[in-house]
Amino acid sequence: xxxxxxxTGCSSGIGLACARRFAEAGLRVFATARRVExxxxxxxLGCETRTLDVTDPADAERVVAEIEAREGGIDVLVNNAGHxxxxxxxxxxxxxxxxxxxxxLIGAIGLTQRVLPRMRARGRGRILMMxxxxxxxxxxxxxxxxxxxxxxxxxxxxxxxxxxxxxxxxVIVEPGLVASEFGRTALARLEQGGRGETDAxxxxxxxxxxxxxxxxxxxxxxGATTADEVARACVAAALAEQxxxxxxxxxxxxxxLRTRASATDEAWDALLESMYPRxxxx
Length: 282
What we know:
Layout: E1 4-7, H1 13-24, E2 28-33, H2 40-44, E3 48-51, H3 57-71, E4 76-79, H4 94-122, E5 125-130, H5 143-163, E6 168-175, H6 181-191, H7 203-216, H8 227-239, E7 246-249, H9 251-262, H10 265-273
Parallel strand pairs: 1-2, 1-4, 2-3, 4-5, 5-6, 6-7
Helix pairs in contact: 1-8, 3-4, 4-5, 6-7
């Protein structure tokens, strides 16, 4: 049914795995990243590679226009590009919140808006939004990240209703913990977090957050899934005759989402306090 797929954020992790799996499924894959030189392995597999910074509307226009001119349109869009900003709410610079939303939310919205007119004209299309279990539950230190994913899920729910009548399906993908470059980047961004006079009040919290992230994104972390498992779920959803509206990937994600759905806010906070140090006056 589908012929061409545009995937963002393919330099590593889930995006890289998705490009490989879609290529194996026989689709013409347009794999993109901010640095095209990071996509050499995918080019060797036969994927077409392009530079695409999702925060740059001109990049989105250029890439989509080229694909539409060559292929007639894009059958599957996988909005995968993103990162995880970490840091205490109070000390995280406002610029870091903005950058997180620009990449994880606004970038996905802008690219989706660009592909929709041709999808509508053709009467078909699949749009996969890479969210997270963190789009339905939140962990300490992740205010910027969770804000971007909660908003992405809300926008995607609206979009699903608005475009279904045109033959376009929207699928929200919700992985749990994935051992990949994503975790290392999150740790690096924590180190770059706010620097201000209130920082000392959060020293113990940041140390605990750093330790929790290190454990969570380790390759042998209990319950962690792999980028390839997420990729296989994406291919299955994209090619399904009746695609699901949401795909939860990983046993840990399923368990935590069930726990959060049944827990009061107080019970959830108590569970979090068993994993993270709560900031308090020293």
